[in-house]
Queue: 2 jobs
Job 1
Amino acid sequence: MSGTMEATWPRADGRASRHEGKRGDGQDGNGNEAATPRIRIATDGPYLVSGGATLDEAQIVSVEGHHEYRRVRTFDVRETYALCRCGNTTTPPFCDGSHKTHRFDGAEAASRAPYRDRADVYPGAGAYLFDDNRCAYARFCHREDGEAWTLTEESSDPRLKREAVRASMDCPAGRLTHVDTQDARVYEPALAPGITLLQDVDEKVSGPLFVHGRIALEAADGTEYERRNRYALCRCGVSRNKPFCDAMHVNVGFAASLGL
Ligand code: SF4
Ligand code: FES
């Protein structure tokens, strides 16, 4: 059994707004069938995005004792476009062919086992926390009242349970998810299909591509990864768990322009 919670997306002016996206009826507004966004990984090359997935950029900012997204720009993109995966492009975030001159090795090392099989389970009175350890070091799991794991232990308290669920739902990597102990509801944010470039202001580094809204991901060998609502794709080229981010962008000080 699964369910969703409505997520809000902070606008550049700081006010919360519903995350705007494609129509939910599969139509493009002119009565035409809307294409479905998907990402195909090119062998030792870029992410090939099709279906008109939106592309924007957000900073991860500290607000009191937690982190929030602050959208800073939206890109005008075509139906299809190629995003750099090697970290060497001179036209970020788009591919300029640098992967060839840099002889980029984009071999995909990530496990194909389903999330539920890979995840550890942390029980709590109000909710169970699933954790697959696929971390992008975005730090949304740290809240004023504790971290997602300790908040889960204390989830008999409704306020702390809400904090725990907030912490897991904000995680861009999809590493953390909560399941309600009472009705087995899976807490997932309702996010429109799109890609968000993350910029980590505190660490002064550029982070991964935050892919949201259940966008299909096709490996270079043509097989499809498990379809997930949230995941973080490496764009620095250094992850040891390609195509997913493993926080190496912090270690290597990856900075893809953009005023950092
Ligand atoms: S990516 Fe998820 S698990 Fe990792 S620090 Fe951020 S919120 Fe926490
Ligand atoms: S972008 Fe995070 S490891 Fe490459």
Job 2
Amino acid sequence: MSDPSRRVSPVKAAWTALAVAAGMAAVGAAAFVGLGVYDVSATGPHLQPVHSLLEFALKRAVQRRAQAHPPPPDLLTRERVMQGAACFRDHCVTCHGAPGIAPAPFALGMQPVPSSLIEATRHWRRQDLYWITRNGIKMSGMPAWEYRLDDGELWSVVAFLDALPLMTPDQYRALVGTAQVPGAAQEGIAPGPSVGARPSTTTGMPRQHASIGMIGTGGANGPAGGAGAPGTATPDARSSGRRCDGRVEAPAPLTPALSTAELAQRAFRQHGCTACHAIPGVVGPDTSNGPRLSGLAGRDRIGGKAFPTEDGLAAWIRDPQAIDAHTAMPTLGISETQARLMARYLLAH
Ligand code: HEC
Ligand code: HEC
């Protein structure tokens, strides 16, 4: 005779089974991590389903966040494409390659390998490309450019990517060749080959792209496809001496806006400070390449020489080697605004 009060209810049994399964999964995951089973090497790829899932997750995450950044209405001007070409040449081609140009050897050893961006506009909207370039992609090797390119430069890169599918290797070389000398007069540089559009491979593109024909049509700043007879235009040397020096005083505000402390924490991460210093409240590796940056306000000196005031700290952060020629801390090209932001944070923590 079974005692009804001791019979296990089906609901309770299901919960017990679920708890046991969850417990086993947790033990399995802990063993997987703790025993070092996961292959972290860049030669070992993800499993194909994992790769596909990550790609899908990336796409959805970018599309959702890029919504807040519609492209400026005058995006596809000749000026922007020229400036974007300079930025691409200076900051992107080593990893992503370009028409007729291979990535640098180190980039080919990366996992995931940086994709060719020639057809990036097939997969991404303009605001997506802006968002990716500005924010980077975590755990992939794609850097964030927010602290290295200003907002105009970021959109110029997008305009350039828009023109890329129609660009021949010769056109690319002509474009970046004349974009090489920052701000200088370009006399003496031979005009590149003709820059007419390459029509046959472009059918099926999802939408209108910046016409490469408009590049170098002497002053035409019109919208995509509006100017330039294919095959006759040459790059305009005078206006192509573009700078893309990546000196960002303070990045344009993000949505949602960050607090001052959060901005400082982001500045420490984006300027490489966390590679050498543990900093209170800032996520980073467990490092002791440099001293832990806490309690600086109560100290007599910082770096053995500078004084622990906002001025003194900011001066050290901007140019430690000017204060102590033998310090191992490198001069990192930090702007005054960013240095003061970090100095105030350090004095308060
Ligand atoms: C250190 C190498 C590196 C540099 C430099 C770099 N990237 Fe990337 N980039 C990557 C990697 C790795 C990925 C992720 C793999 C992928 O999807 O291409 C990526 C992804 C991208 C993507 C998404 C591509 C796609 O189809 O999924 C875009 C767009 C992009 N990068 C733009 C740029 C731009 C613009 C620059 C220059 C301002 C740049 N990258 C510089 C490594 C780099
Ligand atoms: C390559 C490693 C490295 C990087 C990157 C680096 N530092 Fe340093 N930093 C050091 C070393 C080493 C010292 C000790 C220097 C000395 O005393 O000569 C130091 C000292 C300091 C000090 C003085 C600390 C004390 O206890 O006296 C401050 C403040 C500081 N760094 C801030 C920063 C900030 C902010 C950044 C990022 C903008 C940064 N550091 C990036 C290596 C680094």
